[in-house]
Amino acid sequence: SGFTVVVYNRTPERAVSLLAAGASTADTPREAVNGAEIALVSLSDEAAVDALVLGPDGVASGLADNAVLIDASTVSPEHPVALARALSARGIHFVEGRVLGNPGHARSGVLRIMAGGSIEDVDAVWPLFEALGKQVHHVGPVGAAASLKLVFNLLLATQITGLAEALALAQRAGLDRSVTLRAISGSGYSSPVMSFRCGLMATRSYEPAAFRLALMAKDVQYALLKAASVGVTMPVIEASHAELASAVASGLGDKDLAAVLEVQEAAAGLTDQPNQPSQTLEVTA
Length: 285
Known about the structure:
Layout (H helix, E strand, L loop, with lengths): L5 E2 L8 H5 L3 E2 L3 H4 L5 E4 L4 H9 L13 E4 L6 H11 L4 E8 L2 H6 L2 E6 L2 H14 E8 L3 H29 L4 H9 L6 H12 L9 H18 L4 H18 L7 H8 L18
Parallel strand pairs: 1-2, 3-4, 4-5, 6-7
Antiparallel strand pairs: 5-6
């Protein structure tokens, strides 16, 4: 897409495919962004963002004056406001670039991107967003994109925890597991993300994770904290979070979100269920 790309990853082996695609790598975040006009970070949580951006040899120490930092991490709405303030003191602009999509979408450049920041700063990085995604929306000032990303993730969390509960009930009621998943996946009640995870549940293919279960539990917790601060009660989301937290406590945190099914089936006494052939489902990402 015409961009020169230098990559830093805390786990170097994860950058190998990018090297093959023409990127170069660096040993530190500072080295990766040395003199760059735009930097993009995507990390697991707020502590990781702060350490990589503001810490010793961090991104902020290597960027050029008036450069733009884009954060694609899923964080609380308050975090980007504080980060933007810290970066502004160093002469660095800040834009949120929260994304919807799985690793396959990222590789294909078809993410959906929610941008947050000033019009001028978002416009400055718009060509990069267009290279990364098929839809780009400027949703408001800094903090707005983080809020909207959490809203989307709440919808995903409730869909998949609800799917896990429904499938456990279906099996206990005597329905065939494969038939049930096929019916749900192809119905008007489904969605692209639900159909995708029907396929993962059918074969218990939870690794590599398209969306790690532990990260979803973290995101829902961020949303619950925000809801409490603005006086919104969310009993359905609280119940969904409890299921996710139970799955993480059971050692499933690094597996895909679909693995929450394992907790539901175990609670229902549905252990040692055989895998089902993936060709019985019409699956879309």
